[in-house]
Amino acid sequence: MSVMNPITTYKSNFRWMRNAVLLASTLISGTVTAEDKPMQAGETGRVESIVDGDTLFLDSGLKVRLSSMQAPKLPLGRSGFKAWPLGEEAKAELSKLTLGQTVRLYYGGLTRDRYDRALAQVYLLDDEGEQKIWVQEEMIRRGFGRVYTWPDTWQNSSLLYEAEHEARADKRGIWGHSYYAVRSPDADKLAQDMDSFQLVEGVVTSVAKVRDKMFLNFGSDYRTDFTIYVSKDGQKRFNANGLDPLSIEGARVRVRGWVEMQNGPMVVLDHPERLEVLD
After folding, report:
1. What's phi and psi for 234, nearest 5 deg?
2. CATH of domain 40-169
3. DSSP per residue over 149-180, as a string?
4. What pLDDT, in 10s, does the model give residues 160-194?
5. Average pLDDT value for the chain
6. SS3 label, residue 69
7. Using CA atoms, how far apart are residues 232 and 229, in angstroms rounded to an integer?
8. For the chain, which terminal residue's Cβ has fewer other Cβ atoms within 10 angstroms, N or C?
């Protein structure tokens, strides 16, 4: 199966599809990429310690959350929290890649989260102080992270998706474990994944907008089947880039998000980068 850029639009009409491909060549997931919207250079420092597969400390004491990726989670002292599979392996991989190395942070949008962690793209630097390796891209390519975007930050998502597709095709790291397998929109099975972050792939069987609510349905009964709910803010972000979620009826898509139960299982989509349209 070939994969387009993370968001494009779908119709069988050839001319419409040609225009969609042209749109996708300039817009990644309906947002501006880091190439079009420059990142702001931030702190430089040496990586002193590793918390888990997507969090580290610099020698300055700054705690850094690797923005736009999600590694397997560890308990980190949280009572009753069960470690995700390969969490220790992801931490070890980030250690091998960055520990003791000099890095520079880059910001796109929000710079701190509610825990006062830096939300940054992290680059290893060479001896001349130039960018050598984009840590997020490399961790995802090695199979120890998933693309995990947020609407209030930006990054070159196309490169991250390419790295993820490559790792998943080769079953590297987490992609060789059933815990991280891409789910089907089977409502009964997805109900077992409630309150977990999942990638769900299937065909949009119908679309609907009821007042200010927008739904992408994956079965004949919207009251029990899997549904993507496009939030109000999500609709605004789609519209701001000239993209219409209602146009993808009949398309095979892959969405990522936290599974919750609203009638049947549901994922809330609040920005376009978490939706891939496949051909």
Report:
1. -60, -45
2. 2.40.50.90
3. --TTB---HHHHHHHHHHHHHTT-GGGGSGGG
4. 999 999 999 999 999 999 999 999 999 999 999 99
5. 88
6. strand
7. 9
8. N
Query: Domain map of the chain by residue range?
Result: 14-30+182-278, 40-169
The DSSP output letter for 109 is: B
Q: Which two tokens stand for residue 7?
A: 């968001």
pTM: 0.86
Cα–chain center distance at 159: 12
The tokens of 109 are what?
């949008």
At residue 89, the 3 state secondary structure works out as helix
Please say if the pLDDT value at position 26 is more than 80: no
Evaluate if residue 217 carries a pLDDT over 90. Answer: yes
Q: Contact, 97 vs 133, CB < 8 A?
A: yes
Q: Give yes or no for residue 74 having a pLDDT over 60.
A: yes
Residue 41 predicted with pLDDT over 50: yes
- Cβ pair 229, 268 in contact under 8 A: yes
Cα end-to-end distance, the chain, whole Å = 7
What whole-number distance in Å separates Cα of residue 123 and Cα of residue 108? Answer: 14
Gap between the Cα atoms of 22 and 17, Å rounded: 9
What does the alpha-carbon distance between residue 26 and residue 15 come to, in Å, rounded to a whole number? 17
- CA gap 148, 270 in Å, rounded: 13
Give the list of residues 6+ apart from residue 112 with CB closer than 8 angstroms, or none. Answer: 118, 119
Query: What pLDDT band is residue 15 in, cutting at 50, 70 and 90?
Result: very low
Same fold, 14-30+182-278 and 40-169: yes
Q: Name the one residue in this structure whose structure tokens are 């999942």.
A: 198
